[in-house]
Design brief:
The chain is mostly beta strands. The chain has no helices and 11 strands. Strands 2, 4, 5, 6, 9, 10 and 11 form a 7-stranded mixed beta sheet that branches. A 4-stranded antiparallel beta sheet has the order 1-3-8-7, with no helix packed on it. The radius of gyration is 13 Å and the shape is globular.
Amino acid sequence: QLQASGGGVVRPGGSLRLSCVAPLRTFGSYTMGWFRQAPGQEREFVAAIGRSGGVTDYADSVKGRFTISRDNAKTTVYLQMNNLEADDTANYYCARSRRTSTTRNRGLYDLWGQGTLVTVSS
């Protein structure tokens, strides 16, 4: 099971760092991703990172503000979120994909964390 944490309430312009611990014996062989779901909305892609961390991909809405990274020794993936906006308010989920390259396709992620809530409000 994936364990996401780090959510909270932050003012517009603020920052948060999400973490996702994935106690998987072969963590380094998986692409990892972050998705988010706002109330009444579909779950949408936020960011993905390749197995070694050398390849990343971002949704246009977060590019330049969010940074995904991973520490394979700690079997953890991170999402650094800067300059947060009200539209970033959502439950954030980490997920694992068995694909060898990054993907935005939600259906290609087969293991999900429980979500951590991010609220951006003044």
